Amino acid sequence: MFIKKIMSFVGVIMIVLGFAGSANAAGHAKKADHIVEIKGMAFSPKNITVKAGDTIKFINMDAAPHTATAKDGSFKTGRLKKGESAMVKITTAGNFSYFCKIHPSMKASVSAK
Ligand SMILES: [Cu+2]
């Protein structure tokens, strides 16, 4: 009887751990391939080389809001406040210039191979 209780308790623990494990795996799969920080009114790194299909996470470290908006419209983060981030996917090869819609003098580029 007691053993049976222990076994079912262990079973519950295993299920909980299993869920935690799969949630972790899903989180890991969503990790960006590249990270661009927006800091001091600039994109860093300013020029990044990726592979077609890669994801880039833009993180705004500034107090000012920023965007990362492709000139040709192929990707955009939307407005990012301090500490916010957004992930975009570069679906095709090419050179993509992008800028901040709020501060258009902030320019950078993505080169996708
Ligand atoms: Cu900006």
Could you describe the 3D structure shown?
The chain is of the alpha/beta class and 113 residues long. It folds into two domains: 31 residues; 79 residues, Cupredoxins -  blue copper proteins (Immunoglobulin-like). It is 25% helix and 34% strand. The chain is built from one helix and eight strands; from the N terminus they run H-E-E-E-E-E-E-E-E. The strands form two sheets. Strands 2-1-4-6 form a four-stranded mixed beta sheet, with no helix packed on it. A four-stranded mixed beta sheet has the order 3-8-7-5, with no helix packed on it. Copper (II) ion (CU) binds next to loops. The site of copper (II) ion (CU) has 6 residues, from loops.
Q: Helix/strand/pairing class, anyone?
A: alpha/beta
How many extended strands? 8
Main beta sheet strand tally, sense and closure:
4 strands, mixed
- How are helices and strands ordered from N to C? HEEEEEEEE
Described by the principal axes of the CA atoms, the overall outline is: globular
CATH 4th-level superfamily of the largest domain? Cupredoxins -  blue copper proteins
Q: Considering DSSP H and I runs of 4 or more, what fraction of the residues is helical?
A: 10-25%
User: What's the number of helices?
Assistant: 1
In the CATH classification, which architecture of the largest domain applies? Sandwich
Taking pLDDT < 50 over at least 5 consecutive residues as the criterion, the unreliable ranges are 13-27
Q: For the terminal residues, how far apart are their CA atoms? A: 64 Å
CATH class wording of the largest domain = Mainly Beta
Mean pLDDT, as a whole number?
85
